Amino acid sequence: MRGSTITGISIDGEALVERLAALASVGAIGDTDGACRLALTGEDRDGRNLVVAWMHDLGMDVSIDGIGNVVGTLAGAEPGPAVMCGSHIDTVRTGGRYDGNLGVLAGLEVVEAVQRSGIITRWPLAVGFFTGEEGSRFAPDMLGSLVYTGGLALEEALDIVGTDGAVVGEELERIGYRGSAPCPSPPPRAFVELHIEQGPILFAESIQIGVVTGVQGISWSEITVAGQSNHAGTTPMAMRRDAGLAAARVAAFVHDLAGEFGPPQVATVGRLELHPNLVNVVASDAVLTVDLRNTDEALLLEAEARLAAFLEDLAAGTGTGITTRRLARFAPVEFDPEMVARVERVAGELGLSHRRLCSGAGHDAQMFAPVCPTAMVFVPSWEGISHNPAEHTEPEHLEAGANVLLRVMLELAEVVEVRS
Amino acid sequence: MRGSTITGISIDGEALVERLAALASVGAIGDTDGACRLALTGEDRDGRNLVVAWMHDLGMDVSIDGIGNVVGTLAGAEPGPAVMCGSHIDTVRTGGRYDGNLGVLAGLEVVEAVQRSGIITRWPLAVGFFTGEEGSRFAPDMLGSLVYTGGLALEEALDIVGTDGAVVGEELERIGYRGSAPCPSPPPRAFVELHIEQGPILFAESIQIGVVTGVQGISWSEITVAGQSNHAGTTPMAMRRDAGLAAARVAAFVHDLAGEFGPPQVATVGRLELHPNLVNVVASDAVLTVDLRNTDEALLLEAEARLAAFLEDLAAGTGTGITTRRLARFAPVEFDPEMVARVERVAGELGLSHRRLCSGAGHDAQMFAPVCPTAMVFVPSWEGISHNPAEHTEPEHLEAGANVLLRVMLELAEVVEVRS
C-alpha cells in the first residue's frame, strides 16, 4: 500500500527551477546566472531571509541556532528526531546558482510535494541550511554543520576572524542570525544532501544520478613567507631573499606533487598575495594558501609531509622565513553503506542511470556522517564547471535528483497516511 | 688661482642630513627612516612644496614644466645653458630616505656652499627634480626626465594611466604641478647626478665613491594570464586551466633564466595578483610583472626572447591565454668618457677611495646622456638595501659624495670670481 501511494508523488521541477532563479537574483553577478553571497554578508542575509520566508509559507517551524544554522521542520505523526535534508546557501565570490542552493530548495520542494499529496509521515521532515560552508570568508569551511554536529565549540566558532577581518559572532549579530536554538543540536534521524557534482564525471559519462560513497579528505593551509624587500635592479640574484619567488616555488611544487601522486590527489594554490607588490621591488612578504585533497588519508598525510619538508628546504634555499597556519583539515569520510545502497536502489526504481563515486568537494553531509546515517545524491554539472557563474545543471537533472531525495526521505520518515 | 679658491669650499654635511630628514618626514612610514611619496600623490605634492620653498629661500629661479619637472636655477655671470644636477623625490611604496632625494638636496647644498663662499660661476647652476622616476605608480619609470629630454611626447605622457587608475595629466592638475615651462627643454650644458648605489658593491668593498660608467638596460613587461576558475577539489589536475600556476611558472622561469645567464643579468617578478584569489577556487586570471636588466643589450634581447618563447609554450601547456604588455624598455647607457674621468679625478683629488661601476638601477641621468655630457656619482648603501625604509648611507659618505658633486659642478660652470 505505502509503496503504491509513494509511487504517485513527484517533485514540481519548474517550481524548483524558479526558486533557484529567485535565490540567484540575490547577490546576482552582473547578467550571469551566478551570485555572490559570501557568508554573513548583507547578500547572505538577504538570501537567508528569502528562504526563511519560503519555509514559513510552507508552514514549517523555523529554528535558528547560535552559529546561524537555520532548520525548518514539518511535524510528523509522532515526535522525535526528524529526517533531515539540506545544504548551504552561502557562495564563493564567483558563485554559481546550484552549489548548495539545490540541496536546500529541493528540500522545500519535497515538503511541498508531501503536502500537495496529503501525505503524513511518522517522523518529522526537516530542511536545513548551514552557515559558511564555502570557507571563502571564514575558515574552516563547513563551519555551520561542524558546529551543529559538535565538531567545533560554538564559542570558538564565534571568535573566528575572516579574510576581511570581520568576526563571525559580530557578523551574525549584525545580520540578525545569531539564534537561540541549542548548538550542538541533537542529531537528526538521518541526513540526506542533494548537490551538484561540481566535477566532470557524471557530465562526461552522461549519467543522471551520482550515488556518493564518501568525501575525500581536505587539508587547507596558509603559508606566510618573510623575505627582504630590495631593489630589483641592483640586488644580485645570489643576495636576494625573494618572498615572491618562494611563493611561486610552492605553487609549482604542489602542482607537480599532485602529478606525481596521480588522481584522485589534487593540489591548488588559489590565493597568493605579495607585498609591496611593485614591479621594481623584490617582494618582502608573501601569503598564499594550499588546498590538498585525497580520498586516502594515508596519501593525504604523505602529501602534507612532503609539502612541509619542501617548505623547510625552500626557506633555507631562499633565505626566507616560512610559517604555516592550518586553515582546515578533514579526514576522508565514508557514508553509511545502507544509506548509500538505499540511494542506489531508489535511483534504479525511478529508472535513472546512476553510478557510485566519491565527492571531490567538502560538503555539510560529511559533518553529519559521524552522528547519524548520512547519504548524498549528486546530479551532473555542465562540463564539470563550478564555483563559477557559468555553473549549470539541466532542469531534468535537477528534477531527477530532487525526486530521488523525495523518495529516500519518505522511506526514512515512513508514510503513515495519505489524505485524499 | 681658481684651483686654490675652490679648494677652500665644501658642503655643510649636517645641513644636508637635516634636509634629508625633513623631506623624509613627509609621507613618513611609521617610525622608520623611510617615506612613501608615490608620484603625483598628496605626499609627493607636499614633498615638492618643501623643496620648492627651499629653492626660493636660496634665491633660485624656479620653473615647472608640463610634466611637473621642477628646475631651480642660480644665475651665472653669463647667460646660457646651466650646469645641472638633480634626481627625483618620488619614492616607491616602501621608500627609503636617500634614493633620489640625495641628488636633489645635495644640489641645494652645492648652491648654498657657492653662495656662502661668495663664488660667481660663468654659467648658471641648476638643480632639478623629475616627475615619477620610480615607475611604481606610472610606467615607464624615469617618466619626467624622459619627457624633459624629448624621449616621450608630453601629450602621450599626460594620458598615462597608473596602477590605481589615476591619469598623469589629471593628477598633475590636482596637485598643482602642471607647469608652463617648455617641454622638452633645451638641454643643459652638462648633467651630474649624485645617488646612493642601491646595491651592495661599495658597501661590501668599503669604497667611498662610485664612479658610474653607465646604466644597465631595463625591460619591464606586464603579463596577463586568462584561465578558467573552477572548484579546487573536484577538478582533476589534467582538466585545469590554472592561471595561478602559469603565473608561478613565470616567476620561477625568469629566476632560473637569470641564474643561467649569470651576473649582471637580474630578473624579478615583484607584482603578482590572482583572481578570484580564494583558497578553494582555481584562479581564472593572473596579472604579473617581469623586470629584466642587463648591461649588455644583446643579452637583454636574448632574455626577452627566451621569456617570450617560454610564455608561448606555457600557454599551450596550461591551456591558458597569455598576453604581454610592455611597460618600459631602455637600452643600456654609457656615460660621457670625459665626464666619467672628471668624476674619477675629482674623487682622487679629494682623497676619497673610489672605483668604477655600472648602475644596476635606472636613473634620470640616463635620459640626459643622449642630449648632454652626463655623469653619475654613487655613495655606498648600507648592506646594499634600497627601496626599503631601512635604506641607509653614512653621513660622511653623503658629505663626500656631495663634495664630489660640488667640485665637478664648479669645474663645469667655471668660477670667475670669489667675493670675500
Task: Explain what the structure shows.
- The structure is a homodimer of 420-residue chains.
- In chain A, strands 1, 2, 3, 5, 6, 7, 15, 16 and 17 form a nine-stranded mixed β-sheet that branches. In chain A, strands 8, 10, 11, 13 and 14 form a five-stranded antiparallel β-sheet that branches. Chain A has a two-stranded antiparallel ribbon with strand order 4-18.
- In chain A, 36% of the residues lie in helices and 23% in strands.
- In chain A, helix 2 runs antiparallel to helix 4, helix 2 (13-24) crosses helix 13 (395-413) and helix 4 (101-116) crosses helix 13 (395-413).
- The first copy, chain A, has helices at residues 2-7, 13-24, 42-57, 101-116, 143-148, 154-158, 168-175, 201-205, 243-261, 297-318, 337-349, 365-368, 395-413, and strands at 61-64, 70-74, 83-87, 119-121, 125-129, 190-196, 209-215, 217-226, 230-231, 266-268, 272-275, 281-282, 285-294, 321-330, 333-334, 354-359, 374-379, 415-418.
- Chain A has 420 residues and is α+β, with helices and mostly antiparallel strands.
- The interface between A and B is large, with 73 and 73 residues.
What is the CATH superfamily of the largest domain in chain A?
A: Zn peptidases
> In whole angstroms, how far apart are the ends of chain A?
14 Å
Q: Share of helix among residues of chain A?
A: 25-40%
**CATH top level of the largest domain in chain A?**
Alpha Beta
Protein chain pair with the most extensive contact, residues per chain: A-B, 73 and 73 residues
Count of alpha/pi helices of chain A = 13
- DSSP strand content of chain A: 15-25%
Under the CATH scheme, the architecture of the largest domain in chain A is 3-Layer(aba) Sandwich
Strand elements of chain A, count: 18
Oligomeric state of this protein: homodimer
Which regions of chain A are unreliable across 5 or more consecutive residues at pLDDT < 50?
1-5
The CATH topology assignment of the largest domain in chain A is Aminopeptidase
Number of domains of chain A: 2
> Taking Cα atoms only, what radius of gyration of chain A do you get, to the nearest Å?
23 Å
Mean pLDDT of chain A: 95
Main sheet makeup of chain A: 9 strands, mixed
**Alpha-beta content class of chain A:** alpha+beta
What characteristic shape of chain A results from the CA principal axes?
A: elongated
